[in-house]
Amino acid sequence: MNLLNKVRSKGFWLLDSLKGGYLKKDINDIANTLEISSFSLIQKRNAPILKDLLERVVQSSKFYNKYKSYKSLDDFPVVNKLIIKENFDIINILPKDSPNIVKVNSSGSTGIPFEIYQTKRKARRNKADVMFYAKTAGYTIGDQLLFVRLWTKKYKKSLLVKTMLNLIQIDVENLLDKDIAALITKIKSNKQPKGFVGYPSGFEKICNYLDKIKSAPIDCNVKSIIATSEALYDSIREKMEYYFNAPVVSRYSNEENGILSQQMIGDKFYTINWASFHIEILDLEEDKPAKPDELGRIVVTDLYNLATPMIRYDTGDLGKFCNFENDKIPNFEVVTGRKKDILYNTKGDVVSPFIIHANLYKYPELNQFQIIQKDKCEYIFKINSDSNFSKKEEFIAFFKSYLGSDANVSLEYTNEIPLLSSGKRRTIINLYKP
Predict the structure, then answer these.
(1) Strand, coil or helix: what is 254?
(2) Kind and range of the H or E run holding 233
(3) Contact 206, 181 (CB under 8 A)
(4) pLDDT score of 95
(5) Which keywords are on file for this protein (predicted)?
(6) Domain 342-430 grouped into CATH 3.30.300.30
(7) Structural domain boundaries of the chain?
(8) 373-392, pLDDT tens digit by residue?
(9) Which of 121, 254, 314, 410 is the most exposed place for a label (fewest CB within 10 A)?
């Protein structure tokens, strides 16, 4: 760490100390929770926090008043964005003019623009989560942060703030070859420690450019790479690790809750943030636990938001637990996209998106890839390839082995698969409702 970065780090922790050291206490609490050896002990640790949350909401939220006789969390209803939006005023514990709230907006990439309130305590907990999990990936406060995302006016920082945070804003919409070349030149000339965080689709553009110019690995002192908001393909992970000589981990988070889980270096599974959340995986159709070997809906209870309570909140995402037998602490084996973005085979069964993500490495000539299910047996595979796709028949046969022998699979070649308004790219689009 160079002198200026040390000053940033020391100054940050000095300021926290002057404010009571609450951030450091939260980070220590998260670290201590992660060291707990059994799930029953984690539940015991969280029990008083969860009880305080539930007692407050049944007393202070009109929406939850009717649940005063609850026996456990299971007695509370599962809610989603639409339910919270429609009942916003009666769900909230704190009014919108309270000096203790922070307003949080999601991007609306699900089709439902969404605003909730968080207490300042919750916002501080989120900050502690970010700092703790960034550190596990190799990032140190004060290091230069290369943040790849859609930088709308809402998110852009002033020059002063960027300097204080040591932040480089890299807009995923402005990643033409000339922009990437300028970025590479800039980070090569500055040897201070740095970390990437951002959308895999942005990492993909950077790597495709480096492939195109037949670049050697970049000597620029990258210490950490965190992929977020989109599926991370093994091909992108491997290329980022090759070009920047740093480990890549994937993070699962959302704007309304925060960091729900993240891979540790070298792990394929996601370590769940049990320190800040209680998480369930429920059946795709019913509000009951999903079977252990099946994908289900990720349902979150936020232990620290006492403004807009998020109790049994259906995130809209899908996942599957692993490592949950014999009182082991559950992790996510799989975290994937929204229920509306899952595939069904021709028999109407769910096809795990993990199968798709885990096998794309076999086709390195594909720059971009998207599947659209139009009907029960009709699938369009959009592909962007620099060269003739010589493995077309093998590719179709492989996916038909999962979709069904009667699947009607067609290939559609394109120069670019467009991003969503949020700057993210959907790998799967399902227009069929079984």
Answers:
(1) strand
(2) none
(3) no
(4) 83
(5) Ligase
(6) yes
(7) 342-430
(8) 899 999 998 888 766 788 88
(9) 410
